[in-house]
Amino acid sequence: PVLDTEDAWVSVEGPVSIVELALEQKRIHYPLVEHQFVLCTVLYAIMRLSLKGVKPLSLFDSKGRNAFFKDLTSIQLLPSGDMDPNVLSIRQQFLLKVVSAAVQTLCSSQKDREVSEEDYFPFEKGKNWPTVAADLAQYLQISEDLVRRHYVCELYSYGMDHLGEE
Fold first, then answer.
1. How far apart are CA 122 and CA 99, in angstroms?
2. In what residue span(s) does the Rab3GAP regulatory subunit C-terminal domain sit (predicted)?
3. What is the rounded (10 degree) CA torsion for 142, 146, 148, 153?
């Protein structure tokens, strides 16, 4: 971008402006940032829902694991459309665990007393873990419908038929 400056500012001495510093930065490789975001979401879900026995890096193939340790400005080979069926199976199991844990947490909190999900996770207003799992399914190449069907089945199995019907 072209930055027009007034003549009075041209002769100013001192540290470089923040705008000039920002323009000198290398451009990031957005798919790599997106890849990092998926890992952060996976780690947060594991921590927040207290999932046991999940190995987060097992959800990614070798290209995906190598990409985590590269500079965000570098162009990296990210996983292609063809995935190993074992990795896809592990991803699917993980997403179903997230949904099951979220429904279990919601149901156990409502059995103790009548509380909404927003009350149980007050600093996460609007954070709906089954929806997060469905969104994550898109990045992990798993069918969103599979995750949503599992969510409905979990709601019915915990006796929350009114939510399951919705």
1. 19
2. 1-166
3. -150
Question: Residue 114 in 3-state DSSP?
Answer: coil
**Is the CB of residue 137 less than 8 Å from the CB of residue 95?**
yes
pLDDT at residue 118 is higher than 60: no
CA 80/CA 82 separation, integer angstroms: 6
pLDDT at 149: 93
Global model pTM greater than 0.85: no
1 assigned to some structural domain: no
What integer is the mean pLDDT of 134-141? 91
CA-only gyration radius of the chain, Å: 22
Tokens of 16: 């470089």
Give every CB contact of residue 164 below 8 A, 6+ residues apart in sequence. Answer: 152, 155, 156
Domain residue limits at 90: 26-109+123-163
Mean pLDDT of 138-162: 89
In a domain, residue 130? The reply is yes
Paired tokens of 157 = 């199995």
Three-state SS for 12? coil
Q: Which residue has the higher pLDDT, 96 or 81?
A: 96
pLDDT number for residue 93: 95
